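Example 9 (inverse folding). The structure is encoded as follows.
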């Protein structure tokens, strides 16, 4: 590899363009729709809780088809060349966009590469930068077997633009495909993995839970008023897990430090019964006009909610009406529907 070269196409490159080899592409399959989170930058949690495969002791220009540590082997579909910024590669991005501005790198002289892991991992990532300074687009697919877990696409342009490409997945990652355009190859660095995930992946899902109930009156209904939630009975089970989140702590003079702190992940699953009421009037002849009745009905809902909280905090469960409406189904029936929110207090 060279430090700098200029091709006949007048494209500035970070290293020389080598012979382009063929690369096999994995067939597409069903996209895995849940339990996936992209890590945008190498934050403290990511660095501390993943294993970095160190190849800094390997001489520059050494051809490699794999790198490994005591737990993991990362195999490449073609030979990569060991290098280092800025000796064999001109530039890289700087923290917080990357771990270091002068990393050891592995150069791929084509725009396609398949990475296979001998140990499927719930976290896998690396930094990537194209060879060309011109506009180029890269698509990175993460797989478990033939199942596509997620895709990261990024457009590069200019210098100092290496990015982190990292994914957390409940379904372990065993293969990654890198596919670029118009870049004359690329380099990767800071290859990290964790076989088991310790990060908080699933977002809190304080969703609005729909409900509906039909109430029958013994008499014809003339009119009705806005219904109310009278009470409820919650029957849930809570499972508690611990996971990690990065937080920034502000300091004086516009400074901050980043910490990696554990939090409790609370998952509530179960049911609840809502007691609802509505005031209605009927058409019976009364001395003082229409007769006012209070009708009651129940509605059953399912609860599946995730919360994050600091440790050793007690919480009580509650249901709060978000929306509620009433309508007439027939002369003697009303329908009450709406949404409730399951909360911790």
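The amino acid assigned to each position is listed next.
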């Amino acid at each position: 590899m060279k430090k700098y070269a200029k091709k006949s196409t007048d494209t500035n490159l970070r290293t020389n363009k080598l012979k382009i080899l063929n690369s096999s592409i994995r067939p597409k399959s069903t996209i895995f729709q849940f339990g996936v989170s992209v890590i945008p930058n190498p934050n403290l949690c990511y660095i501390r809780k993943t294993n970095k495969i160190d190849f800094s002791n390997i001489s520059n220009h050494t051809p490699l088809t794999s790198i490994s540590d005591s737990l993991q082997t990362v195999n490449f579909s073609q030979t990569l060349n060991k290098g280092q910024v800025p000796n064999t590669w001109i530039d890289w991005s700087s923290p917080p966009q990357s771990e270091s501005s002068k990393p050891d790198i592995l150069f791929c002289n084509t725009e396609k590469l398949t990475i296979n892991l001998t140990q499927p991992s719930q976290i896998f990532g690396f930094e990537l930068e194209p060879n060309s300074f011109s506009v180029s687009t890269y698509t990175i697919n993460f797989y478990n077997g033939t199942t596509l877990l997620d895709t990261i696409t990024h457009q590069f342009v200019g210098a100092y633009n290496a990015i982190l490409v990292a994914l957390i997945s409940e379904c372990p990652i065993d293969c990654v495909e890198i596919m670029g355009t118009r870049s004359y190859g690329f380099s990767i660095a800071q290859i990290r993995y964790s076989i088991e995930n310790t990060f908080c992946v699933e977002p809190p899902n304080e969703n609005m839970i729909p409900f509906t109930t039909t109430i029958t009156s013994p008499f014809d209904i003339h009119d009705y008023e806005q219904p109310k939630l009278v009470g409820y009975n919650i029957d849930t089970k809570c499972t508690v897990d611990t996971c990690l989140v990065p937080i920034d702590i502000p300091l004086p003079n516009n400074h901050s430090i980043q910490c990696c702190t554990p939090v409790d992940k609370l998952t509530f699953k179960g049911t609840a019964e809502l007691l609802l009421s509505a005031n209605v009037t009927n058409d019976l002849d009364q001395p003082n006009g229409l007769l006012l009745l209070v009708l009651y009905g129940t509605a059953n809902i399912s609860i599946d909610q995730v919360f994050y909280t600091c440790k050793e905090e007690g919480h009580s469960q509650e249901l709060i009406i978000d929306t509620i409406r009433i309508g007439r189904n027939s002369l003697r029936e009303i329908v009450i529907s709406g949404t409730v929110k399951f909360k911790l207090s």
